[in-house]
Structure formats: structure tokens, C-alpha cells
Amino acid sequence: MMNNTKLLNEILDYNQKFVESREYEKYETTKFPNKRAVILTCMDTRLLELLPKAMNLSNGDIKTIKNAGALVSHPFGSIMRSILIAVYQLQAEEVLVIAHHDCGMSGLKAEPVIESMMSRGVTEETFDTLTYSGIDIKKWLHGFDNVTESVEHSVDVIRNHPLMPEGVPVHGLVIDPKTGKLDLVVDGYQD
Ligand SMILES: [Zn+2]
């Protein structure tokens, strides 16, 4: 708890100076992406600056959606909704799904996560209640086994979504979180 309080104070102190010294001016742009695209990628720390730098993207260039694993787990979840909003309301004309090697969701099994939850106070009873409510917690917490297949699957879900308009290329890529090298998995112009 102590550490969290410290981090928040650091952030707020820095923020005050950032705003006062008008540092924001060099980032001023609009809500519409200059490069007319939306990226779905992973929340991995190594990609925070590396991914945009490796792709020559600056503030204002693209829409970015992040989650654990760059996954579209549910066709009517918040990730798919964000993509659709980007396409219909925010002038995104292409979609890029960019997963990465050495992802925390790669090979992730539900069991150790559940064990970790239980060691921090979540009870057996809670898991039972969720199960009786029809929630398959093990499936929900499962990551992916193969990053390439995972990207292909997410691209498929987006491309074949009943609410996606025709003619929006959906690309799939995998980035190296050390070098920033991109490997093309699906070229959305080829379909
Ligand atoms: Zn990841």
C-alpha cells in the first residue's frame, strides 16, 4: 500500500509541473488518427514506447487499444466495441492486431492464477458461486498456446464480425519486444 501511495504522489507532483510548464503543447493533436488506423496490442511494459517508435508512430497518428495478449476474446466485448467505434466514429480505415513474442498470456494456464487468487483471500466458495452462475473461470483466464495462431484468430474475429463494414483491411503482426522487429502474419490487403 505504501508503494502505491508513493507512486501516485510522484505522478501527481510531476503532473503539476508538466501542465504548468506547458509541456503538453508538443503533443497537441486531434482525436482523429492521422494514419487512419487502429491498433490492438498487448499491455506489455516493453511495448509502451518501443512499439510506436518501431513503427514510426507519434502522438495523434493512430488509435491504440491494449489488453493482456492483444486478444479479442469475445465478439461483443469491449475490445471489439472499441474497434468498431474507431472504424465508424473516429475515421480508422485499417485495423492492425499486434501481438508479441514472450507474452505473459502465452501458455498461461488458469490454475496458477486461481491459486494466486486463493492465496490472497478469494475463497473456494466464491469460485463455486461463479461456477454455479455459469461463468467458466478457467476458460476465461486461459491465455493462448501459439502467438501466430492467436493473431490469426483475432484477425478472423474482427474481419468476420457482423458489424464490420466491407473494405476495412485487418492485418496481423507479431512484434519482438526486444528489437521491435515486426513479423507479418496476416496481410489484410490480400483478402
Ligand atoms: Zn503480452
UniProtKB/TrEMBL annotation:
UniProt keyword annotation of Metal-binding present: yes
EC number, UniProt record: 4.2.1.1
Gene3D superfamilies xrefs: Carbonic anhydrase (3.40.1050.10)
Cofactor(s) named in the record: Zn(2+)
InterPro entries: Carbonic_anhydrase, Carbonic_anhydrase_sf
Record's keyword terms, sorted: Metal-binding, Zinc
Cited CDD domains: beta_CA_cladeD
UniProt superkingdom: Bacteria
Catalysed reactions, as listed in the record: hydrogencarbonate + H(+) = CO2 + H2O
Keyword Phosphoprotein: no
UniProt family annotation: Belongs to the beta-class carbonic anhydrase family.
Protein name as it appears in the record: carbonic anhydrase
